[in-house]
Structure formats: C-alpha cells, structure tokens
Amino acid sequence: MQIPRSAFVAAPVLMGAYGIIRILDGLDGSHGPGLAWTTGHLCFLGALAFFVRGFAEMRAIAGRGRLAAVGFWAGTAGVVAVGGQFVIDIVVGFMSADRGAMEDLFTKIQGVPGIEPAFYSFGPMLFFVGQLILVVQLATRRTLKPWAPVLVLIDTTLPFADKDLIPLGAVLLLISFAPLYRRAAPQAALSPRLYAAVQAAPCDGDGA
C-alpha cells in the first residue's frame, strides 16, 4: 500500500526532473531532438501516471461527492490530453534530425483538425482545472493548508510565463501536497482491509 504515499511525492519530483532536463537540453540553444528530449518527456509521462493516482486519492479524501468527481474526471481527462501531447513530442523527436525538422513536423501535426484543441490548448487545461478543484476542496476541509490552492495556481501559471520555471512549480506542489503525504504514510502501513475501511470512512479534516 505504498502507492498513495509515493504518488504525492513522485508526481512533482518527476515533473521537476522533466523541467531540469529541459533546461539542460536547451543549453545549446535548442530543445531536442535527442536523448535529453526523450528522457525528459518520459519523466513527465511518469509524473502523469502518479498524478492520476493522486487525484483518485484526493477524491476519496474529499468524500467522493459530485464536485470531487468533477475534479477527478476533469483532471484525468487533462492527463490523457497532456500525455497525448508528450507522446507526440517523443515521436516527433525520433522522426526528426534537428530542431528545424521538428518544427516542420509539429506544424503538420497540429494542423490536423482536432489535434490542437485536444492536445495543446483546451484538453491540457482540464488537468490544471481538475487538480485545482480537488485542492480547493481539500483546503476547504482543512486537509490541506489554506494557501495550498494559491501555490497550485502559481504552479499552473509558471510554465506560461517561462517553462524554465517548471522545477520551481514542482517544489510548490511538493509543499502543497505535504499534508497528503503525511496523511497517506501512516495509512499505508495498515492491513489492506483496515486501510480500505479508513479510506471509506467520512473525513472531517485533521487540520494538517
């Protein structure tokens, strides 16, 4: 039962790893193609898998109400969209000899009807919206600190200002999720039957 505990750490850490690798990849003046491009994107895909598990855990803690369900499914749909974008990036990297060839291929792919809104604009926004809905709910229940939604919102906006700030956003997420990590950690040591009972019990918030 280590997944709930690790998800709240692994997701931001892998996201931060992507950001750091991206910075290193750009030291020569361009991003991709190559090993750094592929490795960084694989790190982010790993982060997305942990985010989905984290969203499920946050939904359970929030009480599985309608708003929690909206947050979970919106976040999960966003994960699929962002994941699709990163898979496209990896494929383009493998198919291109240099950054110029990548740009040409990106233009062709994004020109296909539906691709741009699904994987590059509207779709990915669902990830941030869903995550924020869940975090606000947990902050309202005092499971997360009152300022956690602010940090998550800042993390959401940082890449739009400068993608080199992605590692900073990952640190903000780690700080925001810390109460969830501490909450999940002792429960992970319980027997599977007792753990399931704890997860099913109503949560009034522990003020952590």
From TrEMBL:
TM helices/strands, residue ranges: 35-55, 67-97, 117-136
Keyword line: Membrane, Transmembrane, Transmembrane helix
This protein's name: Uncharacterized protein
Organism encoding this protein: Streptomyces beijiangensis
